[in-house]
Structure formats: C-alpha cells, structure tokens
Amino acid sequence: MQQPVVALESTLITHGFAYPDNVHIALEMERIVRAHGAQPATIAILNGQVRVGLSEDEIRALAQAPNVRKCSTRDLGIVLGRGETGSTTVAATIFLAAKHGIHVMATGGIGGVHRGHPFDVSADLTELARTPVTVVCAGPKALLDLALTLEHLETLGVPVIGYQTDTLPAFFARSSGLPVDARVDTPEDVARIVRARRALGAPGGELVCVPVPEEAALPAEVAEAAIAEAQRRADAAGIRGAAATPFMLAEIARLTEGASVRANMALLRNNARVAAAIARALHTLPTI
Ligand code: PSU
Ligand code: MN
C-alpha cells in the first residue's frame, strides 16, 4: 500500500445522524484523516457497486437518499445482487476494507450485545473475530450491555485496547468502570500489538477504545438515565434488531436536548484523528 488509509463506515451517515449533521460529520472525518497524514476511504454500496472511497457529491447524495438499507455482513450479497444502495455497518465496512487491503477503521461505537436481549448480538463482533482490521471506537454503543459485550469479545478472541485509559469508555461518557485488556498511550504501542498479532497468525482484528473528549462528554448518570428511558420506549414500541440503534439514538438526542449528538460528533472527530495516527504508525513500523 502506497499510503496509510483509514476506512470509514457509512451507516452513521444514513442511520446515525439526521441530515445535514450527517454530511457535516462525514466530510469532517475525511478532512481530519487527511490532516493527520492518512487517506480516508468511506465505504458503501452505490447502485449495486462496492465503493471504497466516496466523492463529496456521493456522500451528500447518500446522506439524503431515502430508505437506504443498513448492511451488516449478511446484507451485502442481497444489496449487490439486486443492484441497490446500502450503507455499511462496522461489520460490513471491515469485511470490504480488508478485501481492499485496508486494515484500520474509525467509527463511533461498535455494535455488541443488547440490554435485555442477550441473543441480539451485533455481527460487528463476529466479523471482528475473523477480519484483520484495527477498529478505533469510543467503546461499544452505550445503549448495549457493556459487560456482556466484553465477555463476548473475549470468547471471540478480540483484544480490547484502551487508548490512554484503563477502563472501557462508555461512548457518551468517558468510562464504564469495566477494565480493558491493555492500556496503551501512543499510536506506536497499538501498532506493535497489531503487528505481533499478525505475526502470530491470529485471525481477526483489535478494538481500540478512545474516551470521548472531556469537554463534550456527558456525565455517566445523565447518559445512563437517557439510555434507560430510550430502552423503555424502544421495548414499549417493540423495536428490535437493526432498527434498535437508530430509534434509540433519536430518543436519547431528544432526552438530552442534543448533548448526545454533540458528544457523538466530538468522539467521531477524535477517533478519526487517532485512527489516522495508528494507520501511520503501522505504515512506518518495520515488518516483524
Ligand atoms: N453507533 C452509533 N450509531 C450507529 C452505529 C453505531 O452511534 O448508527 C451503527 C454502526 O454502523 C454499527 C451498527 O456497526 O450500528 C451496529 O448495528 P447492529 O447492532 O444492528 O449490528
Ligand atoms: Mn444490534
């Protein structure tokens, strides 16, 4: 690979934020990756074609397109085979990124085990277990069961690395209080762990968890109260599976009067920066 590249997902454009916030944050993440010495590649399926790297116009069009399918790994063939347009979750993004030789991705929160629905486990976890991509996030989405998500990641052999933190970040809040498998303090520390795993022939990727920047973080109890209320509303409305995240994020935004959206944007910008630095460190590290 000529240049360090950072893959970016497109579900946050179609389902994570409303228009025009979605355009702004997607373009901003691309700009931040470039400003930190790597090339961004936002991944999506446009009219039945896998696209690794979207133009600004394509990002704007996707952000306003109605009824785009949120694609996890299982959905890719369906959308491609029918010539449709789909956005990619972490699972689908890393699957396509790895096929294109990209091994670092930045996102907000990965999927995991849902609260009260321990069999609703995101395919993000299964895909991370078999696809060698280092995913930079602010922890699993806070609306999940974080302890069960960590247990599941352990079973799957995916290391959880805290970036400048000893505890798992809780997305809108800086800490869940749960311990990570290892704390690292520099991009080079991450790169050395990734290289060691590749040299071992370990399958799958790594989860690098970066706390939301202090100035945008929600107090843990404020985030927790909003999440619990949003979960009650989702359960009362019978909303599950792929629809759960978009529904709950919108409810949490209402309950926190937009503070959750500001936290989400701040952590995405920060993760784009950290992912670019890790991609650069991996690029320059001598092969083991
Ligand atoms: N985090 C957010 N908003 C999102 C997502 C994560 O704050 O929209 C998306 C990501 O694309 C993630 C996906 O991969 O949700 C997981 O969805 P599911 O639980 O349906 O696998
Ligand atoms: Mn889910």
Could you explain how this protein is built, in words?
The protein has a single domain, classed as Indigoidine synthase fold. The chain is about 45% helix and about 15% strand. The strands form 2 sheets. Strands 1, 2, 3, 4, 5, 6, 9, 10, 11 and 12 form a 10-stranded mixed sheet that branches. A two-stranded antiparallel sheet has the order 7-8. Helix 5 packs parallel to helix 6. It is globular and about 55 Å long. It starts with a strand and ends with a helix. The chain binds pseudouridine-5'-monophosphate (PSU) and manganese (II) ion. The site of manganese (II) ion has 5 residues, from loops. Manganese (II) ion (MN) binds next to loops.
Summary, kept brief:
The protein contains 11 helices and 12 strands.
Characteristic key phrases:
single chain; 288 residues; alpha/beta; Indigoidine synthase fold; 10-stranded mixed β-sheet; binds pseudouridine-5'-monophosphate; binds manganese (II) ion
DSSP strand (E) fraction? 15-25%
Please name the fourth-level CATH homologous superfamily.
Answer: Indigoidine synthase domain
- What is the structural class? alpha/beta
Which ligands does the model contain, each kind named once?
Answer: pseudouridine-5'-monophosphate, manganese (II) ion
| Total discrete domains | 1
Quaternary state of the chains: single chain
Low-pLDDT windows of residues: none
Helix proportion: 40-55%
CATH class: Alpha Beta
The number of helical segments is 11
Shape assignment: globular
Please outline the major beta sheet. Answer: 10 strands, mixed
- The count of DSSP E runs of length 2 or more, i.e. the number of strands, is 12
Distance between the termini: 17 Å
What is Rg? 17 Å
At the fold tier of CATH, the topology name is: Indigoidine synthase fold
The overall average pLDDT, rounded, is 95
What CATH architecture would you give? 3-Layer(aba) Sandwich
Write the H/E string, N to C: EHHEEHEHEHEEEHEHEEHEHHH
